[in-house]
Design a protein that fits this description.
The chain is an alpha+beta fold and 129 residues long. The protein has two domains: 1-89, RNA-binding S4 domain (Structural Genomics Hypothetical 15.5 Kd Protein In mrcA-pckA Intergenic Region, Chain A), CATH 3.10.290; 90-129, no CATH class. The chain contains four helices and seven strands. Strand 2 and strand 3 form a beta hairpin.
Length: 129
Amino acid sequence: MAGRSFSLMRIDKFLWCVRLFKTRSLATEAVRREQVHLNGRVVKASAELKPGDLIALREPPIWRSWEILSIPASRVGAKLVPGLLAERTSFEDLERAEIARMAKAHDRSPGEGRPTKRDRRAMDRFREE
């Protein structure tokens, strides 16, 4: 590994290390499906990034973006992530994503999909009686 700088890291590993994905294979799959951009370009999972690069992640209906502040040695705890990434997504985009999330939750028909916490508690109370 002579001549290799340790301030570089593969994009799929970085996305997993900073907890944007639960597993590295999910991060690799997102990169393969072109849901991740590095400095405005579609890249392969093996693309290396460095501090100062911009990454964008597709979270429908918006693209969320972050600036890389530092590269971790390995996966970090959630409390350490703000020291590694700086959110660069516009307030308008974040607001639009929140509205879409609320609309999706509002359109859910009762009894459809996974029960909400409120539904589960009501079922537990019913079973206890």
